[in-house]
Design brief:
This protein is mainly α. The protein is built from ten helices and no strands. The protein has one domain.
Length: about 240
């Protein structure tokens, strides 16, 4: 157990130093969600404070998956992943290390965005404990999604395309811009299958808004189910692809 934890830690640390904490990656994780929110705000001016929880959730999604969906694919192409698997490290530990690194990067980018927004717009986090729990669990779920995307493809561009296949429907169906209750009946069930829906709802609740989907504890539990399910699938697929 101790060796597994050490392996997870050093794999995450290596990924963060090698891939994540580069200026282009940081700016992508922050600017892309901000552009989406500002576009919606300029078209339909509303109180920007109401958009902040969704902006933070979107930052978590793109901050974790933008590189997480590429790193494993890139290392498979270069042979780095094969060399890593020659060490006495389980496939599960490798995936957990990758996911932990991606999650930490997403949290860092989101905190930076939160501090920037705090100095521009007056807002208050009513339930800091719920907010912290929502950010951490959401980042793990989104990072696990990025890992799931990357283990199933062979080329980096395929990972990017597949990641967008999951991310862009989330943007419009998870309650970021339109409440889930306001979605057409034909697509509303899809909102309940997206992890971003539960992230947005729990973070909104931490800001003092009424939960739209479930009690925040239930939303966080659903996000944990997404996390463990995607981790399990990622490990299973990677084992089959590397055997």
């Amino acid at each position: 157990m101790k060796n597994a934890i050490r392996a997870i830690y050093f794999i995450a640390l290596k990924d963060m130093k090698t891939y994540y904490f580069k200026p282009p990656n940081i700016s992508w994780g922050m600017l892309f969600p901000l552009v989406f929110i500002l576009a919606f705000y300029l078209r339909n001016p509303v109180d920007f404070e109401r958009l902040i929880p969704g902006l933070l959730s979107l930052s978590l999604l793109f901050g974790t998956t933008s590189m997480e969906a590429i790193v494993i694919t890139f290392e498979r192409m270069t042979g780095a992943l094969e060399r890593l698997m020659l060490y006495p490290v389980s496939t599960a530990s490798i995936i957990l290390g990758k996911v932990t690194g991606g999650a930490f990067f997403g949290i860092t980018v989101t905190i930076a965005m939160l501090l920037g927004l705090f100095f521009i717009f007056p807002f208050k986090i009513v339930n800091p404990v719920l907010f912290i729990a929502s950010v951490i669990i959401s980042s793990l779920a989104f990072s696990a999604l990025g890992a799931f995307v990357s283990v199933g493809v062979k080329q980096v561009f395929e990972a990017q395309t597949l990641a967008n296949f999951f991310r862009f429907p989330m943007i419009f169906l998870s309650g970021l811009f339109i409440p889930v209750s306001g979605l057409p009946a034909t697509v509303k069930p899809l909102a309940y299958l997206l992890p971003l829906t539960y992230s947005v709802d729990s973070i909104k609740t931490s800001f003092g808004y009424q939960p739209e989907i479930f009690h925040p504890v239930v939303s966080l539990a659903v996000l944990l189910i997404f996390t463990f399910s995607l981790l399990g699938l990622s490990v299973k697929i990677l084992k089959s692809r590397m055997s």
